[in-house]
Write a structure and sequence with these properties.
By secondary structure, the chain is mainly alpha-helical. The protein is built from 11 helices and no strands.
Amino acid sequence: MKHLSRVFIAICFIILYAPILVLMLFSFNSTASTGVFSGFSLYWYGELFKSGDVFNALRNTLILAVTSSLTATVIGTCAAVGLDRMRSRRMRGIVSSVTNVPMMNPDIVTGVSMMLLFVFVGTLIGATEDKLNFWTLFIAHVTFNLPYVILNVSPKLRQMDRNLPEAALDLGCTPLQSFFKVELPAILPGVLSGLIMAFTLSLDDFVISYFTKGSSFQTLPLYIYGMTKKTVTPDMYALATIIFFVILILLIISNIISTKDERKQAKIRKSLNKT
């Protein structure tokens, strides 16, 4: 049974990562062939860095991902703190359930509904220019990132010692000082995990971006999709390989932060048990 479970896990990993490995392999192909590997070369990576359109789309994607993830992290952290301080358990449960709906909702439903909302509001206020632009895309990304930030911060708030903020207030801190000096450092691993998750989700989002973007702003996933209508050249494989490793590094950092926090919490609990 033990060997069978290992075989099953190996098959799962092969199914998940075989397409990515093939894509990486052909990003180093010396020719434009997508069926025959002719030899190892960095030619397509050179072509990638020569493309102005790719870097324009990459710049737009990074600007959107950084601004939307930071905004979602600030709003999501405040929302998580507000939820944690709700006295009514029933109301807290209802608000938490409503907050989690965007995560369960299909992306296409979220994208279409937000597009209709933005067009309706644009018509209502009499917008004469393009009703969909960077700001509609920004609001959409902040919206779908919020639940993930709240989901990362809320457990850290529950793990935090409730006596710490009260002790800070007794020692003369204002509620705001107590939050920044005591609560925020305690929940910081959750905040950072939420920020990294929001950044990665914004970086590779396609469906919601497709419906809420304007004609003047194009992200990298949308640029790649536009290329699939023609012929996808191996420089896109090189770009996908780079994106994969960037996301992988961010996930590793997020896991390291979570692991360090868990060890720290375990040490605190062990020292409390001894006393």
